[in-house]
Structures are given as C-alpha cells and as structure tokens.
Write a structure and sequence with these properties.
This protein is α/β, with parallel strands linked by helices. Helices cover about 40% and strands about 15% of the residues. It has a single domain, classed as NAD(P)-binding Rossmann-like Domain (Rossmann fold, 3-Layer(aba) Sandwich), CATH 3.40.50. Helix 2 packs parallel to helix 4 and helix 8 packs across helix 10. The N and C termini lie far apart (about 45 Å). The protein is globular and about 60 Å long. The protein contains ten helices and twelve strands. It has a six-stranded parallel sheet with strand order 2-1-3-4-5-10, with helices on both faces. A two-stranded parallel ribbon has the order 6-9. Bound molecules: guanosine-5'-diphosphate-beta-L-fucopyranose.
C-alpha cells in the first residue's frame, strides 16, 4: 500500500502533465519524490535509465515523459514522434521491471483510439480500427507503451496501469508558434493580437471539430487518486471531463479570457484532425473522481501563467 513516504519517480516533471502531478503529490504531503531534468538524465539512453533506477530504487513510477505536440507538429515530424516516444517509454518500462519496480502509471492519450470509434469512446475500443492520420505516429508509439505494460502484467505479474487523458491544458504548457496544441497557441495568438492592435486572429481549420479539454491540475488529482486506490483490475483507464466543445467555441472563450476585441477568421488550409474523440469516463467515475475546474476558470489561470512566466513567451 502506498503511503506518504513511498518513493515515487516522476518522469517528465517539467512538462504540462508531469509538473501538475509533481505539485499535486507535494500538496498531498508525499515526501519522497524523485525527478531529473532532461540535462541530468537522457531518457532515450537505456543504460543511463537503468543506472538511475538501480541507484534510486523508486517503488512507484509515473511515466509522464514524452515527445508531444499539436496537430501540425505531429504531421511534420512523424519519425521523431514515433522513435523518441518508443525509446523513452521502453527504456523506462523495461528498466523498471529489471529493477523490481512493480508499480507504474503510463500516460497515453485519447488519440490512440480508432478514428471512427463509437462515441463516447470506451477503453475496449483500442485497436478496433484505423487511426487518425494526423497523429498516427504518436498514437502507434503510445499503443506500444500500453501493450508493453499489459504484456509485463500478463507475463510477469507487474501492476502497470495505462491512463488515457483527453486534451490537457494548464500551467507550464508549450507555446511554440507552430508545434504547440490549440489552447496555448490560441492564447499566444490572441494575446499578441491584443497587444499589437491586430484586426483579426487566425484559427486553424473549420472550427467545427470538437475536443474535450481537461485542466492539468484536475488530471493530476486523478493520478493521485489512482495511485492511492488498491486493486485496480483495469489496465487502461480513460480520464476526461465528459464535456466537449467545438474549436470555434473554444476560440471565442479564449478571445474573451484574453480580452481581445477583433475578429476571428478560419484558415481552412490547415488540418482539422479527428472530428471528435470524446471519452467514456465511467471507470474513473467508479473510482470516485470527476473533473471540477470549468474551462473558463482553467483558461483564466493558464493565461495568468502565460503572462507571468517569461520563459513561456520566448
Ligand atoms: O490541439 P491540437 O493540435 O490537437 O488541435 P489534436 C486541436 C484542434 O484545434 C484541431 C484546431 O482541429 C486544430 O485544427 N486548431 C485551431 C488549432 N487553431 C489551432 C492552432 O492555432 N493550433 C493548433 N495546434 N490547433 C493532438 C495530437 O491532436 O492532440 C496528439 O496530434 C495528441 O497526438 C494531442 O493526441 C492531445 O487534438 O488535433
């Protein structure tokens, strides 16, 4: 049974999900957290990962490290999205087992499910059809990670769990002008349009696709709930909000949050991606968790973080 002294390694503690998980664990009084920056530990180097785990001997691993990006970032670099993610996750999962670490949570993504899944998507739909092409490489890598966890459980009796969050947003996100996800990119674009008195802001695609956005701190709460829950029989659990909105509604909400007064135009030459990937979240609800932060509140905090954290605006 996990307790406040259990040694937990958070892989990817500087990213959007990992930093929220680290803060939540600290708030909850977990005293024995370990983490390394990219500079200190290269997760694509299996030997280095093995040496680190053998020395630290964590009892639990939260695998939040990954190469992530938005729709255009994914389309531009499928080689890196596939190879880097396969390396990072395989190195951690394989060496976790070698070092007798029995408990691990692997972070996947709702994009691993088939493009034409029945909505809302249940965990059982994994590998029941073809993938959305815009994020195929990332999804394939994540599916390998999910299956690797599941194979270790079956073959060696480990307790490795995979979680599938919907689209996350929040503090410490990546605001890259081309490779980022929709929320940070639009926050940046509306903010720059406001400060530079631009008449219009461009939103990619038609504005019609729907997405389910989960505030990263709520997601972190779900992870902490899961590590404290005993005897979870499932190997894959969806984590979402039960709510999805169109990209057009999202753009209007961000426009209001930022206080921009110009117009929105749509660039239909940019990809829409999948139309909807709304998750069925019954499993998480049965465990006693549901999201609590409204999109409006989450966006306000995220925009404040963007305004106050100089590093994000580089
Ligand atoms: O956030 P995003 O890149 O992720 O795009 P995906 C979501 C939707 O927002 C798409 C539209 O329909 C985009 O066309 N969009 C509108 C924009 N304006 C923008 C903009 O300025 N930037 C971006 N990025 N999108 C990613 C996957 O898919 O989601 C990953 O590629 C991963 O593999 C991640 O699963 C969670 O939901 O389309």
């Amino acid at each position: 049974m996990i307790n406040k002294n259990t040694k937990i390694y958070i892989a990817g503690h500087c990213g959007l999900a990992g930093s929220a998980i680290k803060s939540k664990l600290e708030q909850e009084g977990f005293l024995n957290l370990v983490y390394k920056t990219h500079k200190e530990l290269d997760l694509t180097d299996s030997n280095a990962v093995n040496i680190f785990l053998a020395k630290e001997k964590p009892e639990y691993i939260i695998l939040a490290a990954a190469k992530v990006g938005g729709i255009v970032g994914n389309l531009k670099s499928p080689v890196e999205f596939l190879t880097e993610n396969i390396k990072i996750q395989t190195n951690i999962i394989e060496n976790a087992f070698k070092n007798n670490i029995n408990e691990l949570i692997f972070l996947g993504s709702s994009c691993i499910y088939p493009k034409n899944s029945q909505l809302p998507i249940k965990e059982e739909q994994l590998l029941s059809g073809s993938l959305e092409t815009t994020n195929e490489a990332y999804a394939l890598a994540k599916i390998c990670g999910i299956k690797l966890c599941s194979y270790y459980n079956k073959q060696y009796g480990t307790n490795y769990l995979s979680v599938m969050p919907c689209n996350l947003y929040g503090k410490n996100d990546n605001y890259h002008q081309e490779n980022a996800h929709v929320i940070p990119m639009l926050i940046r674009r509306f903010h720059e349009a406001k400060t530079q008195n631009k008449k219009e802001v461009t939103v990619w695609g038609t504005g019609l696709p729907k997405r389910e956005f989960l505030y990263a701190d709520d997601f972190a709460e779900a992870i902490v709930k899961l590590i404290q829950t005993e005897n979870i029989e499932d190997e894959i659990i969806n984590i979402g909000t039960n709510n999805e909105i169109t990209i057009a509604t999202l753009a209007e909400t961000i426009k209001k949050t930022v206080g921009y007064e110009g117009n929105i135009i749509y660039d239909k030459t940019k990809p829409d991606g999948t139309f909807s990937k709304k998750l069925n979240t019954e499993k998480m609800e049965a465990i006693g968790w549901s999201a609590t932060t409204s999109l409006e509140d989450g966006l306000k905090i995220t925009y404040q973080d963007f305004l106050t954290n100089d590093n994000l605006r580089k």
